[in-house]
Amino acid sequence: MAIHVDASGLFHLQTAGSSYAFKLVHGYPAHLYWGPRLRHTSGLGDLLQLKDRPSFSPNPLPGNHRFSLDTLPQEYPQYGTSDFRQPAFQVEWPDGTRIAEFKYAGHRVEPGKPKLAGLPAVYAEPGDGAETLVLELTDESGLRVELLYTVFPNTDAVMRSARLVNGTSLPVRLLRVMSASVDFHDDGFEWFCLEGAWGRERHLSRRPLGPGGTRIESRRGASGHQLNPFAALLRPGADEDKGDVYGFSLVYSGNFLIEAEVDQFRTARVTAGINPFEFRWLLEPGESFQTPEAVMVYSGEGLGGLSRTYHRLYRTRLVRGKYRDLERPVLVNNWEATYFNFNADKLEAIAKAGADLGIELFVLDDGWFGRRDTDNCSLGDWKVDLRKLPGGLADLADRVNRLGMKFGLWVEPEMVSPDSELYRAHPDWCLHVPGRRRTEGRNQLVLDMSRQDVRDYLFKVLSDVFSSAPVTYVKWDMNRHMTEVASAKLPPERQGETAHRYMLGLYELLERLVTAFPDILFECCSGGGGRFDPGMLYYMPQTWTSDDTDAVERLKIQYGTSIVYPASAMGAHVSAVPNHQVGRITSLEMRGLVAMGGNFGYELDLTKFTEEERAEVRRQVALYKDMRGLVQQGDMYRLKSPFEGNETAWMFVSPDRREATVFHFRVLGVPNEPLSRLALRGLDPERDYRVVRVTTAKGAADGETGDFEFSGESGDDRPAVKPVGVYAGDLLMRAGLPADGFRGDFSGVLYRLRAAE
Ligand code: DGJ
Questions:
Q1: Which domains does the chain have, with CATH numbers?
Q2: Which of 77-91, 385-399, 431-445, 704-718 has the weakest average pLDDT?
Q3: What is the value of pTM for the model shown?
Q4: In angstroms, what is the span from residue 527 Cα to ligand 1's centroid?
């Protein structure tokens, strides 16, 4: 049993490695503990310290000066009745007043995990042993909230959300409804989050918590490239391998807020949920409002442990559909090869070159519809451009299929170009404020996904496209953020609901499409990783990590992304040099090895390769296919951070720890370099491992293959395998491998390990 409730009103949620506890104090759920697993419940209640404080922390219970909501650590705090910190919720009554106070009304513990109406969320499967606590709180008006807490016995995470129910006879306006609020008993933490911009997403950011608020948020209508909907509190000294770390990851793709507030008594309150900024929601009598889910992970093994918990949970219980457990195809995408300038023959030539190299999927990117020769028109007109593809998508897909490859397609359904048939027919279908400028981004406007008619149109037109050819993969793009956020369909009092209704509408459309097309692998994209969030992963098992394909930049982007998201969620491609985003020239070997840390592919004109390069690519594809199960389903260990120096390293270990693959990169060459070693992680200390170095670079074909058999046919198609030795797991983790084998600038080295027996 994972959830224990005792007669005194103490709730203890227990997982293999963590405990989370609160108790009822005068009807208020008061937070007690979150951290390493506690053996039992006894004594937990004493963790609450109540003190007599000056009158500036008022006392709701007459005569009891030790009790103030301003000092009580709470599970779902309110504002206006003596707590002056950030509240979890705020409502406004028809008379303009804003007081509501939730107190305990009941609870139940259910097996499994309920779905969250209309929202993506972690799910449980039979046999998981998941349990959900539903804690019911009510206000004297009849307004209720149900706080949901789910735990899986073997995952050190608590999944939280809230459902507000209007049990009154009055309409109530929600001003703020957060998914979770946690009151830590002290402020001895550092704040950790993932920040960036287009082309440099999810860089690491760490800073001390100080008095007042520390926050990350989006006001862009999408989670955004700028700040990922994830933050963590780290105990000072916590690092990649050790120390207490508390993560908050929001399963939502729109405007969000995650905030830590340090108060006068040096306690830290973390709240996470939909950004209250610009949010209003009218709840009529009898209606309810479900918040998105916050996935809170505790790790006593630093950031590495935190990441592996998120990876396993998101890979197996957030991602759905048949591709969840399938190896993902190696693809070639024509975007950086041709941009808008292509025809069927050109595309077929790229596909043919790809098929010869072992690539499995050809993806046709932007430019195949309407009259889209540049980015200034045609979004919304999802009809094939017969000037470029005279035989339509079916003919192109057929040509691709005949090469033995699958066919994939790019779409950007949420957008409309002012220069499009769709916009001319339905100028009110985009987000806009009547009479005001409609601000464009990349010459496009945002369709109003809160409207049923817009969604029905998109479902029909996309279904027609996806059925018009054997499409097995779809890249779903979104290339601008929201402005003039208003809907022609909503009444004045509901305009503040537009941004969240957009997300609910988008999720509904995606649900319809993934249900109707279960054989399509969807990849999320938003100018690269502008919507790399758990909400999208529920519908689309992978995301295009960044438009920046430079191998050096990708070290940081992929390293940062891996803090929360598994390698199986990250699209990573080899692109041409000089790189189109930063102009850098890196080796094909390094570009290949960096991209092999995710879902591997190519994003360049394969017909332009020399014979020598073709041979190297053939070896790269063979190598990746041989180890993709490990990369996509294994446990990831980060060994060296690109944010700290010239080297980066990460490795993947199979669940049974019998196999591993290690990637080691050096950005710039070092003259007369000092000796150093690369200590590995995650191996079985009791086992011996056969270690080989694998290389795909030119002249590499002379090595031995030994036990490592590769799928390439001839010797020249196979990566070269050079034995390094047989070493004990404990030695490899404590002393490591010699950090060498680099050649010049932009170099990568790959090791593979197998249990020696
Ligand atoms: C932005 C994406 O991130 C790119 O990969 C590409 O699909 C372009 N959009 C196409 O317009």
A1: 3-317 (2.70.98.60), 638-755 (2.60.40.1180)
A2: 704-718
A3: 0.97
A4: 6
